[in-house]
Records
---
Amino acid sequence: MTENLIEFNNISKFFGKVIALKDVTMKLKKGEIMCLLGDNGAGKSTLIKTLAGVHKPDEGEIVIEGKKTVFDSPKDALDMGIGTVYQDLALVPLMSVTRNFFMGREPLKGLPFLKTFDIEKANQIAAERMGQIGIDVRDPSQAVGTMSGGERQCLAISRAIYFGAKVLVLDEPTSALGVHQASMVLKYVVKAASQGLAVILITHNVHHAYPVGNSFTVLNRGKSLGTFNKKDISREELLGMMAGGEELDKLEVELEEMNRINN
Amino acid sequence: MSDKAKSIASKKTSRQDERLKEVSKLRLLLNRPELGAVGGAILVFIFFGIVAGDTGMFSAYGTLNFLDVSANLGIIAIAAAMLMIGGEFDLSIGSMIGFAGICIAIPAIYWGWPLWISIIFAFAMAVLVGYFNGILVVKTGLPSFIVTLAMLFILRGATLAITRLITGRTQVPGLRVLIENDPIAWMFATDTFKWLFTWLGSMNLIALRTDGTPLATGIPPSVIWFIAATLFATWILMKTRYGNWIFASGGDKNGATNVGVPVGRVKISLFIGTAVAATIFATIQVLDAGSADTMRGNLKELEAIAAAVVGGCLLTGGYGSAIGAAFGALIFGTVSMGIFYTDVDTDWFKVFLGAMMLIAVVFNNYIRKRVTESK
């Protein structure tokens, strides 16, 4: 039994009187993909921002590699190896693949007081990294706007890994993608995990989460309904739990009622 | 241009890709923001070459004339282009030109400051105005269009009011005598390469005055500043980390912030850049004319933005080039002077200016689509 890479123990977050998160606990090992499922308003965004160091939890503790940690800023979280890929990806479509890859963290060369952006090196690394995921960037100076949604997602993930992420936090990486593109992204996520990263995949799409996840945490109205290993739970059970099973049942009953009246 | 070319070169050596051929040199060229302006400038030169080729427009004297006009506009257009790439506008450039002019003239003439201290004072004021514009835009989140429009009125009004209060008029003459032996003023007031023109004159290659000296005496300072500004701005945009931050700040403010780009600082520095460029423009003009005028630089902000747009800058930010803006300024300068050499009534100049901008915007829109949606 290996040690947990990262633990979130009983995390709570309040905004005034609103309880955004209550007693959420998650534990991840290296190479594990945990899917965080929840409907809109379940507290997913708050949890991501807590993971990324944007919010400080009001209760509970974050433990990384056995050490209790407090994130004072998003930079702290980054330095501790939490790489968050937000839904908007933080990519600029008009800029080149290379310039996006190194945005804000450009490699430099030259004299101490006259350092310039080392574009050759940056181009080379960007092309290499994209090649590793099987995305053949014909020309790393092409604009990101020319890439498909899936490729952009992969670029953003690849960038997070390159800059030292040990835990990848992916916010709805497949939500805007078609089937083919989504499977490309999910394949890459699995590959990243197999190389020893821990992945927290946030989604409301059980069909995307179930095939790749090792464990599933379901959030509902700010509370965790528990974490389940894949062998202990089916896709349908997860779906039911996420939407609040009763609600779906209720909907079914209502639809039947309507059918009866119409007939 | 260069980083694209180099990336191709480096890829060729590191890993041969069979699909690389598709990205031809022509395609790379077509995707450059300055393509339209360079093409436009060539067309303009061909046009005047045919229409006014034998009128003296392209004599040494005529050429320096339209280059001087282009260069003056170019200095502010390049700064405006950098700011536009960074995602903001500065409508106060024209007013800053007038303001900087009197910041030099009043201390030098009325307060007895040495000219060079007055010039430094004007630049210090420019940094303040730019910083104020920038901090206001960054802190309030208001559109820079509105903030700098307010500054346009405030600066112009202050220039007029202060000048009239101190001098009782709206012009401050008498600066020419102060230029000589000044440790700084020569940078803004000296024609260079005089020996070349003297030599050309002695060989009877260029037109001479009746006293035997050449009509064109040297390269005006504006042209030197213009070339230096173009090179410097291009170097920053293409070769430095700060340049990448400018593109990122204008392309997607939130994304850039999320990956650690100091967007606020970048934008403030670009506002300082436009104000400083306006002051360079003002210093050259004031020393050339020997006087400051409160109305100097009127509407120049719009010409600068027009040149930047013709040069390929997108109004939405994140895309453009300094070389493009330089060629945009060259087009305007050439046409505004060239029109005198043709039979066309000069009243038509503004019609041309507007039409040119419209064509440029449509063309740029097409280019942006090519660049971002070519899959």
---
Amino acid sequence: MAMEADLNRFHKIVRGRIKKELRKFVANGELIGRQGKKTIAIPIPRIDLPRFIYGQSKGSGIGEGAGELGDEVKPGQGAGEGGAGEQAGDHALEVDVTLEELAGILGDELELPNILEKGKKNLDNRNVKYSGILKQGPESLSHFRRTYREALKRSIAADEYDFDNPLVVPVKDDKRYRSFKFVYKPVANALIVYMMDVSGSMGDEQKEIVRLTAFWLDTWLSSQYKDLEKCYIIHDATAKEVTQDTFYRTKESGGTLISSAYKLANALIEERYPAGQWNIYLFHFSDGDNWSGNDTSECLSLLQNKLLPAANLFCYGQVESRYGSGQFLRDLLKHFGESNEKVSLAQIKDREAIVDGLKKFLGKGR
Amino acid sequence: MIREKNALPLELQNIIGELDEKSRSVGLNPFTTIFELVDFKQLNEIAAFGGFPTRYPHWRWGMEYEKLSKSYTYGLSVIYEMVINNDPCYAYLLRANSLVAQKTVIAHVYGHSDFFKNNYWFCKSNRKMLNQMANHASVVRKLIDEVGQEEVENFIDICLSLENLIDIHSPFKSKPKKLTDEEKEQASKKHVTKIESKPYMDTYINPHDFLEKQKQKIIEQAEKMQSFPEEPTQDLLQFLGEYAPLTSWQRRVLAIIRDEAYYYAPQAQTKILNEGWATYWHSKMMTSIAPLDVSEIIDYCDQYAGVVANQPGHLNPYRLGVELLRHVEERWNRGKFGKEYMEIDDPKVRLEWGKDTGLGLKKLFEIRTLHNDITFIENFLDEDFCHKSKMFLYDFNPRTGKYVIANRDFSEVKRVILKQLTNIGNPIIKIVDGNFKNRGELLLHHYHDGDDLKYDYLLECLKSLYKLWTRPVHIETVVENAKRRVAFDGNTHSIEKI
């Protein structure tokens, strides 16, 4: 099929396998688009061939509808219905998906295995999900809009509808009710511990990479567990537990003692989250520039003896700071090897590398 | 094979027959229209190919396809109708659509088909484009076999990045007449031939003033002959095809891209009017001429509401087109035109004005024959309509980061719409000099009308141009309120004041 060949070619370009010079026009860049209340917009990758076109037209345009001068409008909401025999517009398309769907897409795209849970697997947690429409049901679940619509249809078809006196009275047959089904979810609890190095060498771009990565980890793990607890630890030479907000915003300076974070994480787990009942995920991001070799060996022993036995997974992501990246990744690699099933190591050079990092982190299905 | 698989069920065939007949009975004059039933995958494919079953191999169709199928999967948009300007006209029906939707689409398609056939702006378009596109595809395939995919595709990429530099009016312009040898000679001598006369009559038969004027003209002519191109030309693709040092396969590819760009131009020029016309007729068809069954009417209304939905901050061409047509119909039905009416200042008097002229439908047919979006809006979007449909202008407020309603002034609103439609939304760029600095360099001029060009794209486009022209390329434009000439010489970009 001709289209398949074209589609293939497009994918290859987007993934940078061929025609690297076009790669810079790929209008995708970031994984996260706008984040609404429950949905998130993810852009569909497009290659925007440069043309002579107008630049930013200062964001003005034409609209229709009521409203006072100064009222807010929300321009360009998605694509309309229809779409006739002409070529589509050039602006990047964004798809609104719910976080649940997003996790699904992520799983598909990255071919992530579903996680095998530990802990209690009792299925007694029952949720109600409204999923359909029935003709019978309790009055409390009556669906007014559907009922009205049916009644309207019937009265028009029966020629009873009076345009001057538009009275619509539903009869029994018109009634529509919401129907529900029970959804069972396994009760398994998960804890994510995010640890981040906030020493002087971690710049804003590095934090942004950590933020993006953490968002995707969150999304994926939330789709796998009903309850997800999160802990945030920042460290330079000392470690402390902070709120999510502080986690991403703090700008500290000073040296780096990674062991301080691991000690704190260990303390947290021992106090609050007994390993037998929790699926524990540890994520640590740093530029890998640890203070001393002594501290590194302390880290390794902490991991080996305390953290790893308790955790499902330990992931270390090394970002590249202005000063290059440090030794820690290599130390971990030397100690645990490539194939340790509880340890995932990734180098996240820039935003583009996040996807590969995620795949490494979550690809083990633990 | 495909025809067999996509053969229409009898029920649809009957509906098509009826609607065809009914359309003609109310004065529409569509092409013979052939419908095919396709599933959404096929429809997305055809839509990605710009309405055709086959195109030359290129990644951008794949990109379009991906976009369409993803938006379909995520329930963002559904393509209801797909119709191509060709004789016979081809249209595609989505197999999964309900019968009500099929009827609506068929009626809508007949509106388009009539528009294609009778609207002046389409009269120069190729009516055998289905074949032409297939020819283009096989030519490019052959070239790929000869020269290699990478090579051909890269060249197509270059052409596509210049694709919008065409002169949409050129099909309607008469070719500038070539000077005869005699005229050329005369021009080069810069000498005015006098009419023979007796010496004492000379000052009367060949008056001095006239001779001077003639001379001036000839000199201008001569200067023009020396400039290249003679007049600034907007049809950049043609100019490059003629004068850029291309190989013969490159010339063919460029000609193909140009040909296809011109084919699509009238559709972009008449988006509002064309959709408005088709919507006007499908709604009329479904509700009065070939009315739907009462049991279908609510589903139809639901669907119609979706088609003409008003999205805040987004001008829906279906909605604007059909509403404006109805507005015009009402005006001409009630004699709301002519000097007497136009001179009324009081909107209340205008509103209540009523003479039983009944010329509405006749006027609509006249509009469908003569107008494109710009002339349609220019002539018929009036203050009453603007207020009735509550149009406004919005602006971005950088302080709050929100878009806010900025203006409801009629002339401002109209000015902005017209500006958006000018040159189908593309900047106007002409070639001024093909021998700039007398060194064979290329000089373009951008006719700036308030909005700057996207600068990073401009730089990339200059690179593409350079690849074709192989000599330095320049463009005169305005960058942040200052006139500038931006150039690319094969290695680096430069920018200078002019």
